[in-house]
Structures are given as structure tokens and as C-alpha cells.
Amino acid sequence: MVVDYQMFGWHLNSYTDFLKALQEKQHPLSPIAHRGLWNPAPENSIPAVQRCIDHKIYLIELDMQLTKDGHIVLMHDSTVDRTTNGSGEVDQLTLREIKQLSLKELNGGPNAKSTKEKVPTLLEILPMIKGKAMINADKAWDLRHELYELVERYDLFDDFLLKSDKPVEQLTAFFDLNPRNMAYMHKLSDKNLHQLDLLLETISPTAIELLFYTEDDEVVSDKVISKLKGQTNLWGNALDFAENARHSDSLSLLDPDQGWGWLLDRGISLIQTSYPLQFMAYAERKMKINDPAED
């Protein structure tokens, strides 16, 4: 596939510009900061979110879990064991109990040191991102009703992106309940590709995440990508062990043309990565090389 790099909206000077390009499906070029910009800050922490805003990273992937007493906290795992100095299932702990814990450095683990940072609630994050960035709400489809209530209450429709791989019938059942909806991204693979036409017609997602185990998967064929480019933004997941045929962050750090560059060459402009600053430095060099206006 020959990609016209001029289609990427990458000269974006503000979140307003980015949001407009995203809503109009103009393929804005952007990293999605996986769990925030968590090096050196702990993942899913307030500093990890603030660093994204400081670096003008407009899409921030954050994971969400519900506490025993009904508060949404930022946490990837169902337990607090890996990322804090405590232990236990999130849904068996109260917010007060979780707030007594300290987040571990970086992405945690048994040997990671504790920090002074606490597990944030989603409510603590919302004032930080309003008008400045968009939250990609991961692990959150089961919290969709609670999230919608918050988004509506605080008028955050321009700052939230819900995602799932649910059947179209389940999506419409939820979206039809609401007078206004959050932006939505659908996870598309060969397994649910048969619903693509119905999805585009009834949901018109803001973005579609392409999940593929090999480069020969139909979902990343020229035919499918060409169809999608005219109707939505394309999202790729460069995380290690993700469904990306090993065009991953680890490969990108060694050979970015074969990692992030391969995704960009498919026309995928939104890239989820644990290395958003390195990705943007590479992408800017690549876009300048391919943009005649820069010659």
C-alpha cells in the first residue's frame, strides 16, 4: 500500500486542533500514551497524566477499576499487588483502604520501590484533562453507565473515548439510551470483521483499532484499510505482546521503520505506545522525509 503522508493531520498546535481533526476523521497523527507517561512517574498516576499534558500528548490510555464502595480508580490489574505496596482485589477494598497504599515506581512489580504517589480516582483526573486531552478508557466497558454519568455531569464529551469489541447489537443498545454520546473506538479483528458494514453504518466510530496476529490477516489488507480510511481514524497498538504481528515497541526501539513505521505505512495514525516521546520524534522525522512541502 502506498500511503499519502499528507493525509496525516500532524501539524497540530493545540488540543482543539487535534479534537477537530479526530472528530472529522482526518487522521491526526498522535501517540496514545499507555497508562500515561509513566517513566519516571508510576503508571496510571496523577504525574503520569500531567506529564502527558505538559508534552502535549492529547490521547492518554488509562485503566479503570471499581472499588468495593463504588469509586472508579485508575488501576490496570484487578488487584493492587503489582502497582502498590499493598495486596488484595480492588473490588474488595474501599477507597479509603486503597488511598492508604502507595504506588510503586514505574510499572511496579515485586522489586519496585514505593513512591509518595497514591492511587488516583477518576474524579481527581477529570479537571486535569478537560479541554487539554482525551482519556482512552480501557477496561471500562463494564463501567460504561457510571462513566456516562460522570461525562454528562462534568460536560466531558470532548475528553472521553470509550472502547470495546462488543457486537454491534450491544453497542446500539447502550448508545440508544443516551441523548448524547461519548466518542467511541471499536476493536476490529478478523473475528468480528463480518460486522464491519453494520458497525460503520449504525455506530460510525471515531476510531477503529486494528488487531492482527499476522500481516496476512484480512483486517490489515489493502481492501479493508482503504475502506476504513475514508470513514474513520485508524488506531494501532504497538505494545509488546499485543495483536500487532510483532510490530511492537520493542522492535521499534531497535528498528523503528519495521515497528512504528510499518504501522504508519499502513495508514494508521494513532499509535498506542509505552514510548510516546520517542514515537513522536521518529514520526516527525518520517513525515518530513515524506512531505514534499518540507523539501
Terminal-residue CA separation = 23 Å
Could you give a short account of the major beta sheet? 8 strands, parallel, barrel
Q: Please provide the ordered H/E string of secondary-structure elements.
A: HEHEEHHEHEHEHEHEHHEH
Output the strand order for the largest sheet: 1-2-4-5-6-7-8-9
Strand content: 15-25%
Q: Average pLDDT value?
A: 94
The radius of gyration is: 19 Å
Number of strands: 9
Structural class: alpha/beta
- Quickly count the helices: 11
Q: What is the helical fraction, as a range of percent?
A: 25-40%
Shape: globular
Detail the poorly predicted runs.
none
Brief synopsis:
The protein has 295 residues and is α/β, with parallel strands linked by helices.
Helix-strand layout with pairing:
Blueprint: H1 15-23, E1 30-34, H2 46-54, E2 59-66, E3 72-74, H3 95-99, H4 122-129, E4 134-138, H5 144-153, E5 160-164, H6 168-175, E6 183-188, H7 196-202, E7 207-210, H8 222-229, E8 233-237, H9 249-254, H10 260-265, E9 270-273, H11 276-290
Helix pairs in contact: 2-4
